[in-house]
Amino acid sequence: MEKLFRLKERGTTVQREIFAGLTTFLTMAYILIVNPGMLGEIGNGMTAGAVFTATAIASAIATLVMAFAANLPIALAPGMGLNAFFTYAVVLGMGYSWQVALTAVFLEGILFIILSFCNAREAIITAIPTNLKKAVAVGIGIFIALIGFSNSGIVVNTAGTIIGLGDLSAASPLLAFLGLIIIIVLYTLKVPGAILIGILVTTVIGIPLGVTTVPEGWSPVGLPAAPLLFQFDFSSVLSFNFFTVFFTFLFVDIFDTVGTLVGVTTQAGLIDENGNIPRVKQALIADAVGTVAGAALGTSTVTSYVESTAGVAAGGRTGLTSLSTAVLFLLALFLAPLFLLIPTAATAPALIMVGFLMMRPVTSIDFSDPTEGIPAFLAIVMMPFAYSIAEGIVYGVISYVLLKLAAGKFKEISVVSWVLFVVFVLRFFL
């Protein structure tokens, strides 16, 4: 393990890494519930069982590549938002078959692999200014905290104020609030694996509250359904609408992945003195390989998960964390009934706690310089407000270039920043 993952160099241990991997898995295991449910709505042969199998295997493949090729504590799975676009916009909205949609995902993954080997995606990450990278980490923290508050029902959508406080006397919000208190106390007392322990204890407490339900005749073991292998349809590849679909998958995946890599590695303290991510090319290839594998198996775009920050908060620093998560995805194929017992209300507190932990870089952002501080601010707030990591990066980069131009600081704008600026501006018109 030491030879493979350089544990001592990163100040970690095998036990801590395995705990971190389990924590990451538990905070993102909801994708094994949500993704089959969402794509299963399509019907016409795309069943929830097949999507479940594809989701688990594709997640494991991509995360294993991340573990061994990049040695980073980042897990991957079909991306939220991208699966909604796949289902509700491309198939149910535009009328394409799910086979055509999978073809768009497959071709996007192939292009990603090419771009990764050509260092194009790596250049994008390197070109993001240091203050903006720190802002991305903070923005992701607030974003996933919002997800945690929302998923648990502590925060709800209200007609009058857009967002408001939920009914904390209801079972799910109450359980999540209790779980948050447990995690905070354990973390304050510096108990190892505080987040993981909090999730498990909260799950048990949820049984008498009726949030954690154990079905009658329940068995923890079951055989997985067969995935939808190589169900592609290239008949619409040359159409303009197909290009629109393809570009949307491409755009969102690039910047969700970039944002997540920056955020997680910053949180883990793995960014070097020049603001660069170690083995970033390999990390990007893991994302691309996962997308190709996912499309071949029958699921939507695979991307790096911000929930990996939960594992980082639990002490994960190397690819051993990712390896542990990948193994659990494979075990989930046969133990689906077991992990499905863990309710969202039990994992939501972990996301909220991680949101707090990811606030740390905000103290080192240079807000005294408006050309640095304002783009950082916009990147931070647009992620939760637009409910998108990618949008936070878009507004951060656009405002950065515009403000540097206004201040006459032309030399501080890199070539890649200029390219991103043009692409982002054109995106609003196209």
Low-pLDDT residue intervals, each spanning 5 or more residues = none
Largest sheet, in brief, is: 2 strands, antiparallel
- Main β-sheet, spatial strand arrangement: 1-4
Radius of gyration: 21 Å
Give the end-to-end Cα distance, rounded to a whole number of Å: 49 Å
Give the beta-strand count: 4
- Mean pLDDT equals 87
- Quickly count the helices: 19
Number of domains: 1
Morphology: globular
Topology as a string of helices (H) and strands (E):
HHHHEHHHHEEHHHHEHHHHHHH
Helix content: 55-70%
Secondary structural class: mainly alpha
Strand content: under 5%
Walkthrough of the structure:
This protein is mainly alpha-helical. The chain has one domain. Helices cover 65% and strands 3% of the residues. It is built from 19 helices and four strands. The chain is globular and about 70 Å long. The model has no long low-confidence stretch (mean pLDDT 87).
